[in-house]
Amino acid sequence: MDLDSLYQEIILDHYKHPHHAGLRDPFEAEVHHVNPTCGDEVTLRVHVADGVVEDVSYDALGCSISQASTSVMTDLLIGKSVDEAMTIHQTFLELMQGKGQVEPDEDVLEDGIAFAGVAKFPARVKCALLSWMAWKDATAQSLDKEKA
Amino acid sequence: MDLDSLYQEIILDHYKHPHHAGLRDPFEAEVHHVNPTCGDEVTLRVHVADGVVEDVSYDALGCSISQASTSVMTDLLIGKSVDEAMTIHQTFLELMQGKGQVEPDEDVLEDGIAFAGVAKFPARVKCALLSWMAWKDATAQSLDKEKA
Amino acid sequence: MIEGLLPELEVIRKDFPILERTLAGGYPLVYLDSANTSQKPQVVIDTMVDHLERHNANVARAMHQLGAEASEAFEAGRDKVAAFIKAPSRDEVIFTKNASEALNLVANTLAWRGDLQVGEGDEVVITEMEHHSNIVPWQLLTERTGATLRWFGLTDDGRLDLSNIDELITERTKVVSLTWVSNMLGTINPVREIADRAHQVGAIVVVDASQAAPQLPVDVVASGADVLVFTGHKVVGPTGIGVLWGRREVLEQLPPFLGGGEMIETVRMERSTYAGIPHKFEAGTPPIVEAVGLGAAVDYLDHVGMDAIHAHEQAITAYALEGLQTVPGLTVMGPLDAASRGGAISFEIAGVHPHDVAQVLDSRGIAVRAGHHCAKPAHARFGVQSSTRMSSYLYTTPAEIDALVEGLHHTRSYFKLDA
Amino acid sequence: MIEGLLPELEVIRKDFPILERTLAGGYPLVYLDSANTSQKPQVVIDTMVDHLERHNANVARAMHQLGAEASEAFEAGRDKVAAFIKAPSRDEVIFTKNASEALNLVANTLAWRGDLQVGEGDEVVITEMEHHSNIVPWQLLTERTGATLRWFGLTDDGRLDLSNIDELITERTKVVSLTWVSNMLGTINPVREIADRAHQVGAIVVVDASQAAPQLPVDVVASGADVLVFTGHKVVGPTGIGVLWGRREVLEQLPPFLGGGEMIETVRMERSTYAGIPHKFEAGTPPIVEAVGLGAAVDYLDHVGMDAIHAHEQAITAYALEGLQTVPGLTVMGPLDAASRGGAISFEIAGVHPHDVAQVLDSRGIAVRAGHHCAKPAHARFGVQSSTRMSSYLYTTPAEIDALVEGLHHTRSYFKLDA
Ligand SMILES: Cc1ncc(COP(=O)(O)O)c(C=O)c1O
Ligand SMILES: Cc1ncc(COP(=O)(O)O)c(C=O)c1O
Asked: Rounded to whole angstroms, what are the CA distances from B44 to B40, B41, C137, C198, D282?
C-alpha cells in the first residue's frame, strides 16, 4: 500500500485550497450527485455558451480525493470547448479505470496526472470520478436544453 | 434401514383392506387435513354422542403408513368414551414421537403397536399422525359445538 | 456405450465428495434427486472456504483491503453469472435468496405504482405446469390488485396446450410467466414462441429457468424473456442465493422491493431516493460467500460445457425412459421422447404409493423424491395426488439408472404386486 | 490487565483463521469492522463444509436418508437460534436472507388486508438513529398506504429524545420500530420501556437487534418486542441468513409475504391456502447450509457465553474511548460511558475526512469503516456527512486498540495537521 502514490502533494494542495469552489450564476444546468456507498456529495453547475465551457461551479462534500478531483477538473475544463472537454473527460476516465496500468498524458491532464495512483485503489476510483460524472450529466442536460 | 420393521404385515394388511373407510352420516364435525410436504390428504368425520365416539368415517389418499394408520385408528377409537380415546391418542402420539425408544403398550394400542417401527423413520412419522391429528381436531370441534 | 454421455464421467464424479458416501446397510449413494437440489463439487466448497478463511468482509461499503477483496470476489460472481446466461449487462444480474424470491420480487412490485403496475381489468397468464413458486406469487398479486389470473392447460402427453393461446394472451395481458423446463413433467416449453406472442400485446415475459439453467445453455436475449430467474443450489452452487436477470428497461420501471442497506441513493427521514440497478433490488448485506460459491459453480459448469451437460442429460434420460418401461404397471408422466424433455422423470406404479416406492428405494441407497414436487396443479391435471420422481445430473451414470430400475422391480415384489 | 476481558482471548483468536492474515506491507490484520460483519470461527466453516460434503440435500420435501439428515441439521439450526434468543417456541423463529428482509417482511405484509393492516390515518413510529434497513421499509409502507411516518429525535449526546413520547406514541400508532443498539452511535436504547408504552396504545413493537444479538444476551420476551430481527453474518455466522422472531399471535395475523415452495398447505390454480408458521414465511428452498452454519455460530457464542462477550465488549469499548481521547481534534459521537453503549464507536477528526482516515489506517493493516454506515439521518442530525467507525468483537485485543490509536496519531501527522 503505497500511500504516497495515492496522496500526491498536488492532491493534498487542491484538497486544502480547492479552485473554483462555490455555486455561481449564470448556469444552464445544475445536478446533484452522491456516492451512495460513502455519502460524498456534489452539487454542480455548468455554464456553456457557444460550445464553450464558460464556467463549472460547485458545492462539494467529500474526501481529499473527491475534493481535489473536482478542483482539478474545473481547472482543466473551464475555457475549453465542449468537445475538448469531453475528450479530457474520456482521458481521465480511462486513467481511473486502468487499474494503474495506464500511463497518464500530462499534456492533456496537467495536475490530473496526480490521480494516476488513485487508479490502484479501486475503492477510491469512485471518489475521483464523482464530480466528473456530475459534470458530464450536467453538460448533457444543458445541451439538451439548448436543442429544445 | 430395516424395511420390515416399517412395513409390518399388519400395516400392509390394513393398507390393502382399510377398516371403516368411507364418509358416513350422522356426524357433528368434518375436517380436511393435508400433509403439505407430500400432499397426503384425509377428510374425516366424527360422530360423538353422550361422550362416546360413535363413529369415525373418512376418505383418505396417501401412502401405506398413513392409510393403515387411519384404519387402525378407527378400530381403536370407535366405541370408546371420548376420554379413553384421547388417552389412546396421547399414547400413540408418544410412541410416534419417541424416535423408536418407546416400548409400545399392546393393551392400549392393539394393532397400533405395529407402528413402533415407523417412529424410527422421522420422515414417515407425519404420515402416521395425519389422521390422528385430524381426528383430534374434529373431536375438539364437535365438543365445542355441543357446548355452544 | 451410450452416446452423448460425458466422456470423463468418472473424473467428474470424483469432483463431488458426497458421491463417496455410503448409506445405511453399506449401500453406496445413488443420488437421483438433482432436480430438488444438486450436489456440490469440491471446487465450489473450497472457494467458499477460502473466502471465509481469508477474505471475509462486508462488500461495497468497506474501504479496507479485506473489503476490497470481498467486493471484488462478490462482483466477480456477478460477472460469471452474467456470462453464464449471456446477459447483455452485468448490472442486469440481481442476486436474490432463491428463485422463489426472484419471482416474488417481480410479482410483488407490480402491485405498486409504476409504469408496469397491474390493476383491475389486467390479466396475468401462467400455466398449469408451474412450480408453486410461479403460481402463488401471481395469485397474491392478482388477488390483491383485482387483476385476473389465467393459465395455459396441458395436453395429455404433458405439453402446454397452446390451442387457445389467442384467447389467453390478449390486450388485457400484462404478464406472461412460465417455466422453461417443468420440474415435474420434464417438458421443455417453447418459451420463445410464447414470448413473441406476449410481446405482440405488450406483456412482459417472466421465465422460470430453475430447471433449465442447470441443464441447457441459456441465452437470456435469445430466450425472449424480459425477466429470467434461477436458483443457485440447482446449478451445483450453494443455497441462499438466486438470480434474477431482467432487461434494464424493465428493471428500471419496477419500483423498489425490499428497502434498506445499499439499495439507496440518499436517505432522509422524510423520503429516500434509490440506487440504480442492480443495487436497487439488493437491500441489506447480500449473499456474499454464496455469490462467490455460485461464481465457482457456473465456472465449473462452463468448464464442463453446457452443451455437453445437456447431451449427457438427454442420454441418461433416454436410457432411463427405456429402463422404466421394463417395470410392469409403471406410467411415466410427461413427454416420452428424451429430446423434448429435461432430466426429471415423474412416474406412478400401480398399486404402490410413491412414498412407499421412495422408501424401498432409499433402503437400497437410492435417493428419489416422492410427493407433489411443489406442482400440485400439474398432478391434479393428471388425476394423481403424488408421484415418484427421479432426476439426473452431470454426475449420473447408466449404472445408477440400472440400480433404480432394479430397485423398482424389487419394490413391486416387496409389495407382492404379482402375487 | 483490563477488567472484563475474555480470559482466554488468545485461544479465542486462534479459532478465527482470518486473524492470521497479513496484509500489504506485511502488517497483520487488525480487524475493527465487526459491526459491519463479523469474522467466522473455524467450527462454523467446518460445520458448513461437512454439511456440503456429506449431508447435502433439500429439506422438508426429501424423504431419503440424505434428505432426513439435511432436514434434521437445518431444523437443529432453528432450535439453536430459538435457544439463543430464548424464544418461547421454535416455530416462532423464521429464517430470512438477512435482517433487512426480516424488517421488510413485516413492513411489506402490513400493507395488505389482515388484522394488523396499516392504512390512512395510522402512524408508524421509528427513530432518527435507525439503520436504513429500518427506515426505508417503513417509508415504503407509509407512502404506499397513506399512513404517516413519525420518529423520535436524538439528544446531543446521541440518545433517544423521549421527551415527546406521549405526542409520538398515540392511539393512532400501529407500529413502533426501533433499534436495540445503534450501529453508528453505539447507544443502547431502553427498548422495554418504549415497548411498554407502545403496548398501552395497542401498537406492535419491532426491534432491530442486528447489533444487539452479537453483543448482549437476548431474551425476546423480556425485551418487550413483538417482532425481533437480527442477521447471521454479524453473530459469527454466514451471510445469506437472517432471523425474524415474532410472537405466534402476531405472525399468524400477518398475511403471507413471499409465495411458493413449501409455504403452502394446498395449491389449486384458483386459490391456495398456507402452511402454519414458521413455514408460511419461508417460501422456496431455505438457506440450508447457512442455517447449519448459524446454528454452529450461536452455539459457539453460547459456549463462550454472551455475558462474558458483553463484558469483553464493554471493557474494550471503555479502553478504546480512553485511547481515542488522546487524539487531538477527535470527537466521538454518541454516549461517552462504555456501560450504556455497544462496541461501535464513530468519530470525526477535525481536518481529515473519514475516508482518508480509513485509508491511512488501512495502509497499516487496520480495518475500520468510513462513510455513513447506512445511517444517513443520524449523521445529518449531528451535522456531519460521514464518520470513521471502529467496532470490536469477542476477538478484539487491547493491543489492537493501541494500534488504532497510534494509527490515528500517525494519520494526523501524515496530513500535517499540527504543521
Ligand atoms: C442496526 C442494523 N440494522 C440492520 C442491519 C442490516 O443487516 P443486513 O445488512 O444483514 O440486512 C444492520 C447491518 O448492516 C445494522 O447494523
Ligand atoms: C421449476 C422451479 N421453479 C422454482 C423453483 C424454486 O426454487 P427455490 O426453491 O430455490 O426458490 C424450483 C425448485 O424448487 C423449480 O423446480
From this structure: 13, 10, 31, 45, 29
Put simply, whether B12 touches C (Cβ < 8 Å) is yes
Phi-psi region of D261 (alpha: psi -120 to 50; beta: other; left: phi over 0): left
Coil, strand or helix at D135: coil
The interface predicted TM-score of the complex, written ipTM, equals: 0.95
DSSP string, C41-110: -HHHHHHHHHIIIII---SSS--SHHHHHHHHHHHHHHHHHHHHTT-S-GGGEEEESSHHHHHHHHHHHT
Residue from the list B12, B39, B63 with its beta carbon closest to the beta carbon of C372: B39
Which residue is closest in CA terms to ligand 1's atom 16?
D183
pLDDT tens for C22-76 read 999 999 999 999 999 999 999 999 999 999 999 999 997 668 999 999 999 999 9
Chains C and A in direct contact, meaning 3 or more beta-carbon pairs closer than 8 angstroms: yes
* Catalytic residue list contains D210: no
Residue for grid cell 397491474: C118
- D384 and D357 in contact (C-beta within 8 Å)? no
CA distance B14 to C22: 34
Q: Which residues are within 8 A (CB) of B29 and not within 5 positions of it... i.e. 6 or more apart?
A: B45, B46, B138, B139, B141, B142, B145
| SS3 category, C238 | coil
Q: Within 13 Å and on the Cβ side, how many CA atoms surround D84?
A: 33
CA–chain centroid gap for C25, Å, is 33
Cα dihedral value B76, B78, B83, B85, nearest 10? 30
Cα(C268)–Cα(D277) distance, rounded to whole angstroms? 35
Burial of C107 (0-12, 13-18, 19+ CB in 10 A): buried
Q: Which of D374, D376, D384, D410 is catalytic?
A: D374
The whole-model pTM stands at 0.96
Q: pLDDT at position A99, please?
A: 86
Q: What is the phi/psi pair of residue D361, to 5°?
A: -60, -40
pLDDT per 10-residue tile (average), chain D, 419 residues: 93 98 96 98 98 95 88 97 98 98 98 96 98 98 98 97 98 98 98 98 98 98 98 98 98 97 92 95 98 98 98 97 98 93 96 95 97 95 96 98 98 90
Cell numbers for D219: 431474551
- Of the candidates C410, C370, C411, C366, which has an alpha carbon nearest to the alpha carbon of residue C388? C370
Cβ(D211) to ligand 1 under 6 A? yes
Indicate if ligand 1 lies below 6 Å from the C-beta of D189.
no
Instruction: Point out the ligand 2 atom lying closest to the alpha carbon of residue C374.
Output: 14
Using only the alpha carbons of chain D, give its radius of gyration. 22
Question: How far apart, in whole angstroms, are the C-alpha atoms of residue C12 and residue B142?
Answer: 60
